[in-house]
């Protein structure tokens, strides 16, 4: 197995630019702690991991203060953002400690975890595992409930900016 360092083949900035050519959706990870405190963070590194058992995963930087608040909670929710929720994505991208929840509409799932309103999907999870991933941590959740709205289109992230699916006019 090769043991090349990134600096042997490209700079971290080169890798970031190259990976930025991969289009992804945008989610907000939310949770409520036992004292009722609300936590959340915007994340574009989210993936389906397994159908049996039903697992999903998101990745967070080791230095993320928002993730520090989320990582030890037993339950959380993944909120898949719709194309008109760019402002919400920016609101939850702020540092922990800011009032990310100001004027945010949400409901509690059957486990008490916050589901943000008007998302294209809300996925309730219980924490399953956490793995090392270089300068990130990989948080795996077991899906415990799901809701979705197939009428809505997703918010996308491509080349370091938000974008939308362009549809051809029919007719």
TrEMBL record:
* Residue ranges occupied by any Flavin reductase like domain in the UniProt entry: 19-164
Q: Does the keyword Oxidoreductase apply?
A: yes
Q: Keywords of this protein's UniProt record, alphabetized?
A: Oxidoreductase
In this record, what's one Pfam family? Flavin_Reduct
What GO annotations for molecular function exist for this entry? FMN binding; riboflavin reductase (NADPH) activity
Keyword Chaperone carried by entry: no
State the signal peptide span. none
State the similarity comment: Belongs to the non-flavoprotein flavin reductase family.
- Official protein name in the record: Flavin reductase (DIM6/NTAB) family NADH-FMN oxidoreductase RutF
Instruction: Tell me the lineage of the source organism.
Output: Bacteria, Pseudomonadati, Pseudomonadota, Alphaproteobacteria, Hyphomicrobiales
């Amino acid at each position: 197995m090769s043991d090349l360092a990134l600096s042997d083949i490209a700079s971290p900035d080169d890798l970031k630019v190259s990976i930025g050519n991969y289009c992804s959706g945008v989610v907000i990870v939310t949770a409520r702690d036992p004292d009722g405190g609300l936590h959340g963070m915007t994340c574009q590194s989210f993936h389906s991991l397994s159908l049996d058992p039903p697992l999903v995963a998101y990745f967070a930087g080791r230095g993320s203060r928002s993730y520090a608040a989320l990582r030890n909670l037993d339950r959380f929710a993944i909120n898949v953002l719709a194309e008109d929720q760019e402002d919400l994505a920016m609101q939850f991208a702020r540092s922990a400690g800011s009032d990310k929840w100001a004027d945010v509409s949400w409901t509690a799932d059957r486990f008490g975890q916050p589901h943000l309103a008007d998302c294209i999907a809300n996925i309730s999870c219980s924490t399953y595992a956490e793995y090392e991933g270089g300068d990130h941590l990989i948080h795996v959740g077991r899906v415990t409930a799901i809701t979705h709205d197939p009428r809505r289109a997703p918010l996308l992230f491509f080349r370091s900016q938000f974008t939308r699916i362009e549809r051809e006019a029919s007719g």
